[in-house]
Design brief:
169 residues; 82% helix; elongated
Length: 169
């Protein structure tokens, strides 16, 4: 999980670097055109043209690449892709999420293992979905329901495929 997250977010970081390099070249090649481009962005956001031109001029005088990165490309230092951070967060969340069903497996009698493991896994998915939604400021019930539904569907599909190929899952 962590490796996949690292690869995915690394690709995003590569794209951000390429976009910034392209923007750096455009600033060097056509400074006036880049001023107009930034001014047009601010006009599109509701500033009158004269104010938009002054804002673009001031921001570009301070940090032209930063202004274009933020307002044209949507890249800010706070929201930049961080592959290592994403991988560590993925590994930690996977470990915590996996620990709960593992504990249930150890504590369950063998004859009740499948239904108890499925039920506790879905319960833990609901709890984690609710916690993630709350942390993100989203609706807790919707977050819990979404994670639980898709988790149950994945379990059902896995069990169905296992039964088709003669393996108990």
């Amino acid at each position: 999980m962590a490796a996949g997250e690292y690869v995915s977010v690394s690709s995003q970081a590569d794209t951000e670097r390429a976009d910034l390099e392209r923007e750096r070249a455009e600033l060097k090649a056509d400074d006036a055109g880049e001023h107009k481009e930034l001014s047009a962005i601010y006009v599109g956001r509701g500033l009158d043209p004269a104010l938009a031109k002054r804002v673009a001029k001031q921001l570009m005088a301070h940090d032209a690449l930063g202004a274009h990165a933020r307002d044209e490309l949507g890249i800010s230092e706070r929201l930049r892709a961080r592959p290592i951070q994403a991988a560590l967060a993925s590994a930690a969340s996977f470990a915590v999420g996996a620990a709960m069903p593992l504990i249930a497996t150890v504590l369950s009698p063998a004859r009740d293992l499948i239904p108890l493991l499925s039920g506790t896994s879905l319960a833990f998915l609901a709890i984690l979905g609710a916690a993630a939604a709350r942390a993100g400021g989203a609706g807790v019930l919707i977050g819990a329901a979404r994670v639980t539904f898709w988790g149950a569907l994945a379990m059902a599909l896995t069990a169905g495929i296992g039964s088709l190929v003669g393996t108990i899952v």
